[in-house]
Amino acid sequence: MHKLYLSVILDLCDHRPVAYVLSDHNNNQLVFDTFDQAVKNNPGAHPIIHSNRGFQYTSRVFYQKLIDAGMIQSMSRVAHCTDNGPMEGFWGILKREMYYGRKYHTRKELVQAITAYIDYYINDRPQRCLDVLTPFEFHERLLAA
Hints:
By secondary structure, the chain is of the alpha+beta class. The chain has helices at residues 28-41, 60-69, 85-99, 107-123, 135-144, and strands at 5-11, 16-23, 48-51, 72-75. Residues 1-143 form the Integrase catalytic domain.
């Protein structure tokens, strides 16, 4: 059995995953690839990036990527995870709704399930905190305003 690692960047305004990458390794490259995908998918965005204190987010290379993209990093003190709370909530929802209680027999099955779930989460899963709209619907409403 091999592990599969998922890196996601959420837009905290509409709870929409703006980038995600799956990898067999939990390393700097996984986070860098996710960050690069988020920047590519959202040109001109200059958000505050909230993260935990994981080694990937404290590296000089990641910090330089933030500077180059014109972004600011926000990172809580040790044992104060307020910056990363929304991301932890997303992980809990994903695990509860698509992972726990199910068996995936192949890597391909798991990758397909994660990809399908993220699509569902963005386009079909209404959220109370978004006026019972999906993240995509809420995003579109904001763009139209």
